[in-house]
Amino acid sequence: MNFNMNIPGLKGVTVHKVEEMGERIVLHVSIPKKEHQCPACKNITSKVHDYRIQKINHLKWFERLTVLFYKRRRYVCQCGKRFSEKSPFVDKYQRFSKEWNQVVRIRSIKAKTFKEAAEVLGTSSSTVIRRFKEVVKEQLNEGVHLPKCIAIVFCKKKVQRFAINYTECCHPVFLQFLR
Hints:
Blueprint: E1 14-21, E2 24-30, E3 36-37, E4 44-45, E5 48-61, E6 64-76, E7 82-84, H1 98-110, H2 114-121, H3 125-142, E8 150-156, E9 160-166, E10 173-177
Parallel strand pairs: 2-6
Antiparallel strand pairs: 1-2, 3-4, 5-6, 6-7, 8-9, 9-10
């Protein structure tokens, strides 16, 4: 099949077939054969044991949900170990492409609700929430800079007035509340 269009996240992938199934676009893809290193003995092998078809959800394409049927090779080594090829567009044991995961992480933050983000991406809201929690965990590991201490002083006069002092700076911030 002559196919000269670049699909986001699928660089270096061979597209064998494009189908329309209802509201979805289905792409049958594979990666060119190359030598892989055995994870057990570290020898290089190119002997294919078998093929497995893996269904992967991908980004929208022309405002339609896209599904990839990835023909994944499983290699066999001289030591007897069988292992899958490394793929540039999907992680091990995943049903969603790397590009899709990046979009979900961004949409989970920018969308008004998790349900809205899930409907746009064709997944469940619980999946969006899980990806959002991953983003939050990464942000918290990087650290959020807060002042060491906040001092709040209350002055009772005709107007309620609060002075907030940050110990790192010497200038108080005055807030006034009228009754």
